[in-house]
């Protein structure tokens, strides 16, 4: 059998396995007598419900004669708020409304709760990734330092963080550190993920540095470079190339671990999924969609890292 024929044969094996997996999932759905309702999902990704304009404070509504604007007069105070540019009124003239009550609606397409949750997950993961690289680089350099104090502090950080569950650390950051420092839930969540991932990044960087032959440092020193200069210009660039695949894997784990911040009252993708399940009673469709959205993030990151690997390989 020629090489090209064998290659197509293995493509056929792959397609057969994927087809069998799909059939198995369908059979499982039939076995539990589940009624699939995928038509419910698109509205939670994007909808044409428009944007609601809500009351900024308690007060009485006064609607203009042309019904193109309304005035909200504060119930206890002298503030007034004029709203215009809406398409549909949701209140009547003289109505008493309270803060955050809907007053009017602007028509148009808006992001659904799952898309909003995806954006929150992306923001948390991206910011945590940047800080985890910073923490990991500092701790990784500390792990190979000859100074006992620096080495001890870096080692204590790595062992303490890697030896405790992420969920426990999130609770500590949210209820203790966040309360003491008056951090928002978003900041506390980012800090917990960055500190946790930074410990693993530190070990990856340490392994990368130690994989570089000692002769590289000695050669750089013989050229008149200081230790920091040699580390920055000679050792770290080579170590980065060697550690790129495990770093990519750790960053993918960071995206998946971000689902735990849902316990902090942050509406990330996982929490949005739970809320949609509660309103639709369609758990299978929702969780398959949530899984696909996580896969979209991690798959995109994997593609970017592979392209970076190829670029570095040709440099």
Automatic annotation (TrEMBL):
<keyword id="KW-0029">Amino-acid transport</keyword>
<keyword id="KW-0472">Membrane</keyword>
<dbReference type="GO" id="GO:0006865">
    <property type="term" value="P:amino acid transport"/>
</dbReference>
<feature type="transmembrane region" description="Helical">
    <location>
        <begin position="286"/>
        <end position="305"/>
    </location>
</feature>
<dbReference type="GO" id="GO:0043190">
    <property type="term" value="C:ATP-binding cassette (ABC) transporter complex"/>
</dbReference>
<comment type="similarity">
    <text>Belongs to the binding-protein-dependent transport system permease family. HisMQ subfamily.</text>
</comment>
<keyword id="KW-0812">Transmembrane</keyword>
<keyword id="KW-0813">Transport</keyword>
<protein>
    <recommendedName>
        <fullName>Putative glutamine transport system permease protein GlnP</fullName>
    </recommendedName>
</protein>
<dbReference type="InterPro" id="IPR010065">
    <property type="entry name" value="AA_ABC_transptr_permease_3TM"/>
</dbReference>
<dbReference type="Pfam" id="PF00528">
    <property type="entry name" value="BPD_transp_1"/>
</dbReference>
<dbReference type="InterPro" id="IPR000515">
    <property type="entry name" value="MetI-like"/>
</dbReference>
<feature type="transmembrane region" description="Helical">
    <location>
        <begin position="9"/>
        <end position="29"/>
    </location>
</feature>
<feature type="transmembrane region" description="Helical">
    <location>
        <begin position="116"/>
        <end position="139"/>
    </location>
</feature>
<comment type="function">
    <text>Part of the binding-protein-dependent transport system for glutamine; probably responsible for the translocation of the substrate across the membrane.</text>
</comment>
<keyword id="KW-1003">Cell membrane</keyword>
<dbReference type="GO" id="GO:0022857">
    <property type="term" value="F:transmembrane transporter activity"/>
</dbReference>
<dbReference type="InterPro" id="IPR035906">
    <property type="entry name" value="MetI-like_sf"/>
</dbReference>
<feature type="domain" description="ABC transmembrane type-1">
    <location>
        <begin position="118"/>
        <end position="305"/>
    </location>
</feature>
<dbReference type="InterPro" id="IPR043429">
    <property type="entry name" value="ArtM/GltK/GlnP/TcyL/YhdX-like"/>
</dbReference>
<keyword id="KW-1133">Transmembrane helix</keyword>
């Amino acid at each position: 059998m020629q090489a090209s024929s064998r290659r197509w044969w293995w493509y056929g094996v792959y397609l057969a396995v994927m087809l069998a997996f799909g059939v198995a999932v369908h059979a499982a759905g039939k076995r539990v007598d589940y009624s699939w309702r995928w038509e419910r999902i698109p509205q939670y990704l994007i909808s044409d419900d428009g944007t609601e304009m809500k009351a900024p404070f308690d007060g009485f509504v006064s609607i203009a004669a042309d019904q193109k604007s309304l005035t909200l007069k504060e119930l206890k105070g002298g503030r007034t708020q004029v709203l215009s540019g809406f398409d549909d009124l949701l209140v009547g003239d003289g109505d008493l409304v309270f803060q955050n009550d809907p007053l009017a609606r602007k028509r148009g397409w808006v992001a659904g709760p799952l898309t909003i949750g995806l954006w929150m997950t992306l923001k948390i993961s991206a910011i945590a990734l940047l800080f985890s690289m910073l923490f990991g680089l500092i701790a990784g350099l500390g792990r190979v330092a000859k100074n006992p104090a620096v080495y001890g502090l870096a080692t204590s950080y790595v062992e303490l963080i890697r030896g405790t569950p992420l969920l426990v650390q999130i609770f500590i950051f949210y209820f203790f550190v966040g309360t003491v420092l008056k951090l928002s839930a978003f900041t506390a969540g980012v800090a917990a993920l960055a500190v946790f991932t930074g410990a693993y990044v530190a070990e990856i960087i340490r392994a990368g540095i130690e994989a570089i032959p000692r002769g590289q440092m000695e050669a750089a020193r013989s050229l008149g470079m200081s230790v920091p200069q040699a580390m920055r210009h000679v050792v770290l660039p080579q170590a980065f190339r060697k550690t790129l695949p495990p770093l990519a894997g750790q960053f993918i784990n960071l995206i998946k671990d971000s689902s735990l911040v849902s316990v902090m009252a942050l509406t990330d993708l996982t929490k949005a999924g739970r809320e949609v399940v509660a309103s639709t009673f369609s758990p299978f469709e929702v969780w398959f969609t949530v899984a696909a959205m996580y896969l979209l993030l991690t798959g995109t990151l994997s593609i970017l890292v592979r392209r970076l690997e190829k670029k570095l390989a040709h440099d």
